[in-house]
Design a protein that fits this description.
Layout (H helix, E strand, L loop, with lengths): L8 H14 L8 H14 L3 H6 L1 H12 L10 H4 L1 H27 L7 E4 L3 E4 L11 H27 L5 H4 L1 H22 L1
Antiparallel strand pairs: 1-2
Length: about 200
Amino acid sequence: MKKRWYDFLWIASAAYLALGLFNILFAWLGLLCFFIPLVLSAATGTKAYCNRYCGRGQLFSLLGGRFGLSRRKDVPRWMKGKLFRYGFLVFFFAMFFAMLWNTALVFAGAQSLRQAVTLLWTFKLPWHWAYHGTLFHPGVAQFAFGFYSVMLTSTVLGLITMALYKPRSWCVYCPMGTMTQLICKAKCAAQRKEKSA
């Protein structure tokens, strides 16, 4: 089967994680992975990003499939359930807004820049080498540290579930996947309503 350009987006996902090791401000590029899926699903009413363009999913497929780092077991039923998926989405947003709050405090001068990446929302990893000051406000770096923490944590969770279950098991409860699914459902419902009107 002939490879298409988007079959190599796993390189972008791996490069993103690597660049954040050297300069934390590269973390801002992760916003593309945040907004593109939402815009694409709102425009098309499909999960095209998740199914075709997600570099992280491709990376898990490569590591778990081609390199055999996955047990290739089915994910448990509870992990597929709405309670877990929506619960994880709410938890993810709570952590995301806490990150935004810390960023706002740095912008307001109420707290100083924390040069640390938080893994799994618990373990603080010193990341001093990745930031040496710039022309930008420290709040810009604070957002980068927080957003890189979110991206690194979700990657680690994806690697754990890849190893325990099927390669792309993360996709079952990925917050972006859950949000795009909700957008697609809302778009389909709106289209049905228009047709019946």
